[in-house]
Structure prediction request, 123 residues.
Amino acid sequence: MIEKKVEVGLIFDFYSQLLTQKQQEVMFYYYNEDLSLSEIAEELNISRQAVYDNIKRTEKILFEYEKKLKLFERFQKKNKAIENIFNKVINLEKDVSERINDPNTKKEFQEIKKLFETLLDYN
Prediction:
């Protein structure tokens, strides 16, 4: 299970464009820049309480979006599936390379690995 602050930050990445400009600013400063409530209040010239209320209200909105749309959940599932397939390909390549020295087979595995590395942003 991921820590709540990390989870909210990731969900924010998915749904930030659905928020108001002020909500985006507050959430960006709090989750991406790791500013305190007081620092955000000073930056935006609003009260610390307004920052706190904005964060709590926006978190609720973000979780409602995720509950309905499930974009983050699907993203996580797809990435996990891709990672599992990638690991199986790596293990299969090791198995095959010990038994088969066919250059075409090796080339195919290298191409598959490169595709997965691109999908997983390993490069």
Summary: The chain has two domains: 4-69, 75-120. Helices lie at 4-15, 21-32, 37-44, 48-69, 71-99, 103-120.
